[in-house]
Every structure is written in C-alpha cells, then in structure tokens.
Amino acid sequence: MKHDVIDAQISPDGRLEVLSRQEVGKLLDSSQGGLYQTFRNCALAVLNCGSAMDDGKELLERYPDFEIRVVQEQRGIKLRLKNAPAQAFVDGVMIKGINEHLFAVVRDIIYADNEINHNPHFELETSSGISNAVFHILRNANILRPMTNPKLVVCWGGHSISRKEYDYSKLVGHELGLRGLDICTGCGPGAMKGPMKGATIGHAKQRIKNGQYLGITEPGIIAAESPNPIVNDLVILPDIEKRLEAFVRTGHGVVVFPGGAGTAEEILYILGILLHPDNKDMPFPLIFSGPDSAKAYFEQIDNFISATLGSEAQRRYQIIIDDPGQVAREMQAGISQVRAFRKHHGDAYYFNWQLKIDPVFQEPFNPTHVNMKTLALHKDQDKHLLAANLRRAFSGIVTGNVKDSGIRAIEQYGHFEIHGDSHIMTLMDTLLASFVAQHRMKLPGKKYSPCYRIIA
C-alpha cells in the first residue's frame, strides 16, 4: 500500500538556531555516523503523529525510503527530509508542534550521545551517576521549572483502551487542569493523550496560558507511541529505565489509568521504589482510577499486587472508581504534602533528589530470550527486588509486542519463555490473559499473537 510522502527542508524554532559552529559540526558528524539509524527512526515516529499504529516494525517498513539529513549553515542547522509522511504537513508546511518535536529528537539524541555516554563526568555504572545523567538530560531539554510550586501529575495508562476509558481519562485531566495542575505522560495515544486533552480545556477555563504537557519517551517505544500533538515539552531519554526514573523524579504524584503490560510495568516500578526502606516516610500520591467498567480491571491489579508484593505495597496507593473530581482533590491534597516534605528537607520542587532508587531499577535490562528465561521470579527475595524482576518481565513483553527489535526477535527465535514459582506464574498468566481478552495488548482491530509463554 502506497502512503503519501513529501520532501521538505525545515528550520528550528528557537534554541537550535544559536548553536556554535563546533556544536553544529558535532551534530553533523553524529547524524551521519552510527547514531543516524536511531535519529532517523525517532524522527519518523514524530512525523507519524496521529496515525493509528502501535507497531514499530510496521512503521519502519511503511516508509523504507524516508531520509533525514542535517544541513549545516552559518546561522545554525536545518533538516532536509525526503519521503516524509505527508500527514505531518498542512498545505506543504509542517505543523508547528511536530516541528518542535522533530528538533527535540535532534537535541536529545545528540546530547545523550555527545555529553552523557562519552563523558567520564557521568559514572553510568553508579546509581548517583545515572540519576545525575537523567537530571542533565531534562535540564538540557529545558523542561525543569524552578521557582514553581509542585503541580506536575504523571498519568500512566495504556495506548489501547476503550472509548469509555479514554473519555474518563479526559475528565480526570480536565479536573486536574481546573486546579492548575500540569500533566506528564508517556506522550502517546490513549490514556497518555486523554489527560492532556482534558487539562488543556481546564487550563483554558482558568486562563492558564503556560500549562505544561510534558511527554517523556525513549527511542525503543517512540515508534509505537508517536508523540501526541498536545505535548508542548518532549524529551527522549536513552532507555526505558532512565525514562521511568525521569517520570518519578520530575512528577509530584501519579494517576494510573487502565492499560496493558506497559502499565503493569510502570505500576511495579513505582511500587518497587516506594517499598525501599529509605522511601518509607516520603509522601508520593499514587491513585489508580478508571470508569465503572474498569472496576474489575483494578481488582485484578490489586489482587496481583497483594499476592506478590503484599499489603505494604497496597498501602502506597488508593483506587478511585468513576469519580474524576475525587481523583483531582486527592491528588491536590497529596501534592500539598509533597511540597511540605520537600520544603522541610530542603529538596528541589522540580526534581526529587531524595527519592532512593535501587540500582536494580536503573540498570538497563535487555530483554533477550536468555535474559527473559533467567529472570528471578520467586518469593525468596526482598519485595522491592521481586518488583524489579516482575517489572523486567512485563518490560520484555512490551518489547515483544510493539518494539521493532522485539518483534523481529520473536519472529526469529519464537516466544519469550518466562519461568518462576508456580504461584507467581499462575498469577501472571491470569493477569496477562485478562489483558489479551480485554484487547489491551494491541490497538482494536489487530489480532494479538502472544510473544511470551509462561512456564511454572
């Protein structure tokens, strides 16, 4: 099937216009070297905004002739696009938000490679070094807002959700926006787009003109979850672990909407961190919420957490069904506690330095067939370590479901095998089967073939 494409040359709107010659030269070298493929794939994902697609491999195969080149000029840089998706343009002119996102790709991919990966200043084998790198990437992206009271709500949830769940996420976003709260999501469609859309209306009613709609992504997932057009701050972290850390260090509270394996991964990540003894007294509002039709979904999640991580984990969140106003009120009250806590301890409002994140949550996990098969999924370990390993299992399933590298690995070597205690495997199998039955693994209308096999 042929897809409409367009050739264009575009200029940045803002910071990249004032790069030095040396910086432009570095950018030119990097984009033509080994980084080019990552740069190209992320750029293509941004240009694919609004498309009903959640398959990284399919996207790359749909536009095989797409090219992007950095053009060096005296004043800075331009980007030359060839065979780019036509939907990113209106009457031959690129949509402004997509233009911003495209140059955010340039900024973050190049910065991470030049300034983080090859810089001895960042000790990426240490926990503090990784957190420092996350901070610098966010600061370079200019998304940290000092001298501002805490008000950033992270909203997690699936890209493949029902219309009723999507509309509910918009209602929650609207209530949050009416209270002057900003939104941060994984920047894709579904439960990532809904809260932002609702908040824009809430902010408009309150005449808030500087609302932040922060999207945090990483190169592996961006093709399956192209940034939605409401995102006005986009930042691309190098991997899923740094992306998750960026969420919990910049956000002041989290609302979780219904979702699939990726949402389960996020829930296990935040609970695993909050279960660390050093975080025992730290306020961190965490709310699971959905419409009345999602009640059974959250009961399944709650039962899974109870049976694996125990009552201590359950005490760290509350479940609110079909009450957007209550979600916003509880979040606002929780963020007030966060502000008081940070003020008392002298911690920054814009980056949670005090949050203890165990290295097991920071080390990049490569979900190969061998690594998935050898995960430690048994109860004879600390709860936060079990959460970390369960998080990795769900992360691997996300990779096999939607990421280009994972889809190709499944095609070549077959299912991921996931082994563990029979009790945990039974719980996991039941939960995943419910995600499949409720069409939470892939967008509606697409047949889902599991990329995994649970083995007790």
Automatic annotation (TrEMBL):
It holds the Pfam family DUF4478. Residues 9-116 form the Pyrimidine/purine nucleotide 5'-monophosphate nucleosidase N-terminal domain. Residues 335-455 form the Pyrimidine/purine nucleotide 5'-monophosphate nucleosidase C-terminal domain. GO terms for cellular component: cytosol. It is an enzyme of class 3 (hydrolase). It catalyses: AMP + H2O = D-ribose 5-phosphate + adenine. Its EC number is 3.2.2.4. One of its GO terms (molecular function) is AMP nucleosidase activity. InterPro entries: LOG_fam (IPR031100), LOG_family_nucleotidases (IPR052341), PpnN (IPR049788), PpnN-like_sf (IPR037153), PpnN_C (IPR021826), PpnN_N (IPR027820). It comes from the Bacteria. PANTHER family: CYTOKININ RIBOSIDE 5'-MONOPHOSPHATE PHOSPHORIBOHYDROLASE, PYRIMIDINE_PURINE NUCLEOTIDE 5'-MONOPHOSPHATE NUCLEOSIDASE. This is AMP nucleosidase. It comes from Methyloglobulus morosus KoM1.
